[in-house]
Amino acid sequence: MSHSRTAASSILATLISAALTACCVAAASAVRAQAPGAASPPTSTDTFDAQVARGQDEYLNACAACHSSDLSGGEIGPPLLGRLFNAKWKDKSAKELYELTRDTMPQGAPNTLTTAAYIDIVALMIKSNEYKVSAPVTEENAGGVVLAP
Amino acid sequence: MPTRKSALLCAASVAVTVMFAGAPGYAQTGAEWPSFGGNQLGTQYSTLTQINTKNAANLKRAWTIKAAGSTPIFVNNTLYSCVEGIGIAYDPETGAERWKADPTAPGPDGKPVSPRRGKDRCRTIVYWQSKTPVAGAPCQKRIFWGDESNKFYAADANTGQFCRDFGTAKGHPGYVTHLDYDNLGQGVNRSGTPVIAGDLMVGGLYTSDAGINPADGFVRAFDVRTGEMKWEFDPILPEYRNRAGAGNIWSTLSADAARGLVFIGTTSLSNDYYGGSRTFDDPLSDAVVALSMQTGKVVWSRQLVHHDLWDYDIPSHPMLATITKGGKKLDVVIQHTKQGYVFVFDRATGKDVYPTIEKPVPKTTVPGDVSSPTQPTTAMEYGLTKLNRDDVFGINAEDRAACLKDFDAATNGKFLPTSAEKPNIIYPANGGGSNIGSASYDPQTNLLLVRYRNTADFVELRKPPAGSNNPHAYFGIFRRWVSPLGVPCTPPPWTELAAFDMGTGKRAWTRPWGQMVEAKGKPLLGKEEWGTPWSTSGPVITAGGIAFIGASEDSYFSAVDVKTGKTIWREKQELAPFAVPMTYMHKGKQYVAVAASGWAAMGQTVGDIVAYSLGK
Q: Could you check whether the bond before residue B424 is cis, i.e. omega within 30 degrees of 0?
């Protein structure tokens, strides 16, 4: 029925399936959204480069399957850098990019990473697009971080 | 191995008695084009001849629809398209909009069908009409389309009013959704592309097979009138459903209503590139599967990749053609593939029409994984098959040096599994070879045209970071194998269009297709003989002897002579027509139309639909 999962992290859900004239009931366990633990929240000693490095790990784990490991896009995930990305995001804020990413990604399971992970991935996108940002991005300051080349 | 936590109490596929009629009369190409690929058989062929090899050079723009979505279908004297969850009807003579069926707009009762709709592109829209219409009643002719919010909507094909009898039993009149059912995992993204089979609308569940714990690749059949789910099919054998997900059908489907069969092509199980979590028998992944229209049960299946370690999903609908071989007409299933083979099976039995050869392939060395000793192949092969160091490409010395550095750091080879120690250059790439809608069959010449790529991916296996929710021992990451400038490291031509004679299985002709115009977002013009680095979709053929095709980043829409492969006519579009075209006849005039709206993989989702004809 459902997929690879550990006892500690899975939530048992019994679901009624396929209720037709001849009824069929399947008891299933289903993994639901789990928060990954790889990203640690930024600290006062955090640097933008350290954030980008964390974002790289998070990105490879959660995003690269569709967008490719170098952000250049795959068969279904659009590129997260270059002309078209820049046309969409230039002069907007890191907060807008964070919120859209959080609310839509990973596709089919939005808002399942930690806030810190999303922010770190945004930092990676900022770095990859050579936007002029040098201080760590935080949830608090993201509204004032402009995506300007 | 993971502990199984659930007991399967009964089979997921449910046999239900459903009445079926024979092949519907509207499933014929000609004046109409009622479905993606022409009709439910999906041969991407039209019998129209008004536009032909002698006059195609005179094609002129007939109409343009701006801010549009999918390539339309034409039926019921109307063009239908869908974009971002909205179904739209257009006038076939002018392209003028007649009405919109927006699920978020208030209905007659003041309430919307849905508070939200998907904002992604829509692949196609499908049409059904009742054989026993009730005079004066609404929704005797219906259109259906899916969206990113995982709904299949139904609207009256005459008025655009949503069919409120569809999905009512589930509490949402106007649509059905896979989300009403247990999908056994996460990442239930888009509803797949539906197909009409008799009085059923059959649609797959489009999930990410690359994900950590994706849903199973369910296909569900819904009654076209009520939306009642008549059967469901799960490609994963019941005893293994707690160990892997996906095997989903993200591409198009086909149906042979006269035989009572629905045809699907499944993807790999999760996850891509590493199979240590799925070292069990999974004959219905990466398989062509013929399902009974009546029950959803498997009538026959052929697995085309065993224990997939390359992300070689079946990328396109099984094409239901009638070819000529040995002087006989044969009803077959043609399946083109990412890994670069054309397979041909008897439609009723699934037996080989051209031999499938199980070829020995290298073993995986990754701990915990067990690869298949052989892979299915045929003599109709395309795409890159071998890569020597001397053949590594570079548009200049610096670029070539970077590509050679990658080459030297990695393993490479067709069907070579990626090791845990070194990156691997995989070819054909995970986009193919061929991909969705890449082929069309011409019964007049007995030729199968296939558009395919000769590019590669650069793949590495990684261990999930500490604390990750990823239960697999490894996961694969990929990038397109390109130089620092963004040019493929594989030798050109990067895309080709080829014709295979289905009477002999031999190639009739091969030509480069398209042209490089930019790399990494910067202008960079390639030589014509290099072809386009990035392409998807493919041609439709007409009885006028023409293959109409876009499928290139250079944005041209072209008419090609089917017999020779030579370009007869082409015109540049604002955005590239990376979609399968269509053609129809209205008021004595033949039109050919295509969505020229770019490619989602390039960040483009909305653009023009353009149509051409032989002038006023």
A: no
Amino acid at B257: A
More confident residue, B489 or A149: B489
Determine the distance in angstroms separating the CA of B219 from the nearest CA of chain A, rounded to an integer.
12
Residue A75 has pLDDT above 50, yes or no: yes
d(CA A6, CA B430): 30
Which tokens is A38 given?
A: 């790889």
- Testing the interface with A: which of B213, B220, B222, B233 to mutate, by most A Cβ within 10 A? B213
Per mean pLDDT, which range of A60-64, B294-298, B436-440, B584-588 is the poorest? A60-64
| Residue B292 parent element (H or E) | strand B287-292
Average pLDDT, chain A: 72
Cβ within 8 Å, pair B2-A6 = yes
**Which residues in B151-165 are b (16+ Cβ under 10 Å) and which e?**
bbbbbbbbebebbbb
Confidence bin at B26 (pLDDT 50/70/90): very low
Specify the 3-state DSSP secondary structure of A49: helix
**What ipTM did this prediction achieve?**
0.70
Contacts A121 to B, Cβ<8 Å: none
At residue A64, the pLDDT reads 87
What pLDDT is recorded for position B10? 32
Distance from CA of B521 to the nearest CA of A (A): 5
Residue of A nearest to B246 (CA): A3
In angstroms, how far apart are the furthest CA atoms of chain A? 63
How far is the alpha carbon of B185 from chain A, nearest alpha carbon, in Å?
6
Q: pTM of the entire structure?
A: 0.88
Say how many C-beta atoms besides its own lie within 10 A of residue B250's C-beta: 25
Q: What is the pLDDT of residue B373?
A: 98
Domains of chain A: 1-32 (no CATH), 48-144 (1.10.760.10)
Q: How far is CA B518 from CA A78, B272, B325, B485, B487, in A?
A: 16, 29, 43, 10, 9
Nearest Cα residue to A70 out of A13, A2, A125, A15: A125
Is there a contact between B479 and A68 if contact means CB atoms under 8 Å apart?
yes
